[in-house]
Amino acid sequence: MNRIKVLTVFGTRPEAIKMAPLIKEMKSREEFDCKVLVTAQHREMLDSVLKLFNIEPDFDLNIMTHGQTITDITSRVLYGCEEVLDKYTPDVILVHGDTTTTFAASLAAFYKKIPVGHIEAGLRSENMYSPYPEEMNRRLTGRLSTYHFSPTKTNRENLVREDISTKNIVVTGNTVIDALLQVVKKDYEFEDEMLKSIDFENKKVILLTCHRRENWGEPMEEIFRAVKSIVKENPDTHLIFPMHLNPIVRDAAKSILGDSDRISLIEPLDYEPFANLMAKSYLLLTDSGGVQEEAPALGKPVVVLRTETERPEAVEAGTVKVAGVKEEKVYQISDRLIRDKSYYESVANAVNPYGDGKASIRIADYLLYKFGILNKEIDEFK
């Protein structure tokens, strides 16, 4: 039997988390010869996920340098992927989402006339500069791809509006739910002493993540002032903020949030403790895309700290509330979720629109179908 040669390419922690269950699924099937290329666009955070999911890269470009620009990343990934593609000659490459690694690897494959499969295809914010550069990365990747694995029907509709053929689009659910269900455990115990000391049963723990480039400066300061007021005026709350490594984020956080005994500024967490911290928290405030998908699967309301989201399904389902970046609005929405129990429960109990834990199976089956090995069409995620 001729095995399908698949090269999976990723470079950041979120990509690794979402690609890991798919890699494990393909490696479990004899029909695939699956190789892993990491660019290490983010080195340390990527390595922790590879270790967690026991993934050994076959190719490692190790491109990360101090102070790297988007242009640096793009050019190094493009050159590095070209060499690997010449060496391995895959039948298809799989990329994920919207990183610069994703776009550059897709371009490298296009230059070699190798089909691209785009995992998490079809997300759109309709603002080319927000999130930046991710919105344009995902649009360009979409034009370069042959196969489009959309998490939701809305994502598929976005692609159809851009004249992508429906015969090459399949709705799979999001692989992040596959990953999440593998690592969250009811009896999970934190190693971090501070997290061990938190009374998750009797405190309303607020988990904050905030790092996006477009929020740097005044927007981030307004967000931090809002959450400080929320904690101050709700004595049953405790805020935990795993600070991004960027000094712009850390300096602002320490300046505004650093003087409260119910605000814990901690170092970034590996994926497993972070996922379990989400599960134990009461409320999440985030400008991250992935958290908007993960938290609904855990029954946790999310306040989105951005002016728009490319994940409207959760807004429509009611699991996510878009607050923007203005202090007053962030405060009002978050404070209501903390004080109004019936409102909180209506958000927490809304249906998760992002997946059922079987996205990786659907993607693998679809590739077998497209390569003529599997005869039946795929049952899509509803």
Automatic annotation (TrEMBL):
Pfam families reported in the protein's UniProt record: Epimerase_2
Keywords: Isomerase
Domain UDP-N-acetylglucosamine 2-epimerase: 24-367
Matches recorded under InterPro entries: UDP_GlcNAc_Epimerase_2_dom, WecB-like
GO molecular function: UDP-N-acetylglucosamine 2-epimerase activity
Annotated transmembrane regions: none
Enzyme Commission code: 5.1.3.14
The UniProt record lists the keyword Nucleus: no
Domain of life of the organism encoding this protein: Bacteria
Similarity comment: family membership: Belongs to the UDP-N-acetylglucosamine 2-epimerase family.
The name this protein goes by in its record: UDP-N-acetylglucosamine 2-epimerase (non-hydrolyzing)
